[in-house]
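ARCHIVE CARD
SHELF: 3
SLOT: left
DATA:
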Amino acid sequence: MQLAQKVIIADDHPLFRAALKQAVMQAVPGVEIVEADSLSAVQGAAEQHVDADLILLDIHMPGAHGFSGLVFLRGQHPGVPVIVVSGSEEPHVMKRAMDYGASGFIPKSSPLEVISEAITQVLEGEEWLPQEISSVADLPEEDYKFASALASLTPQQFRVLTMLTEGLLNKQIAYELSVSEATIKAHVTAILRKLGVHSRTQAVIAAQRLGVEPVKTDGM
């Protein structure tokens, strides 16, 4: 007997989660749905439900910090396809999502029938986009390298990096994660090594490159 497919819906807006749930049930009869309202919640759901068939990920929800959540999920769970669901509909945002490992991109303005079609297509092993994006430039090589380094972080290291980007001090991070300040210092040291940077500031600046609107550099 074939097991029911399992889909994780990650969005912090209850009404839109409900709409996605309806679209999923329309596309996959008998589906099991797991809901998450933050990046930490979807991380936990993905770790608990390792047999998930698909993740629908809002890149604007709490803790996601642009494409960093997508990159980390793809690194931790490479066998689970991710469809990015976003209010940003610009072609360059779609292209970056696909370059960072998404299997599809669904604008939040899409009707339920289109969302269901996208879910079906990705579950069948294909990619789905609402429009052609081949004319959009590829990511710079350094962004690919950073994404690969970010994906190598452990879940706890990723949480610490996320808190660093929010401006929290080691003492504050230790309190939030209920660990010692020495443990956080060790995590920060490991993060800097893996990301190939020499300071917390450099780590934060590098992580900001994964924002939905990329950080502009000189000459851009």
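SLOT: right
DATA:
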Amino acid sequence: MKQLSNKQVFSHLKSCAELDVELCEKEYLRSYRFYPEWSEGVQVATYENGGGDDLVVVFCGDSILIKGFDHESEVSPHAQDEYGIWPGIYEGAPLRLLEVLDDKVFEKKDVTFCLWREADDVEWKRGPVSFPNDENDGSDWLLSAIRTSPEDFIAWGKDYFEDDFSRVSESRIHEIFASNQ
């Protein structure tokens, strides 16, 4: 994830969403979605694994924000003695990106990590979050859902779709990834 540019994250998620449409006729069963015109100047990509975990990725110009939710994480608001977002998760996030999450469809309060990188940033940023008991926010495994190559998508698709994966050829997968670069 660290080595990917914002443009690469955008193109990979767009490719995954386009391929998911071709592989899965029923929209509600798709894992990846891409909204090219969420609002003026804003595009959104989402990933849902069907088990309660998700990513919401907001693109605004060359800036990006990723909100992730691992429902089994100790950091989940649902795992707290008193329901609430883990302290610092959204602190410092660019408001123009963060306010997109205010749409109720994104369930802003269901969050275990938030990363962002503005156009001029080299490194990903996150709020001043502390995990005193080595809590796991789920970011390592959940960010791996961003398929970074045709081969990565093929490996995931064969496992996820099983027999239905034959609806799209491997050459088509390579074509989609290449067209979005």
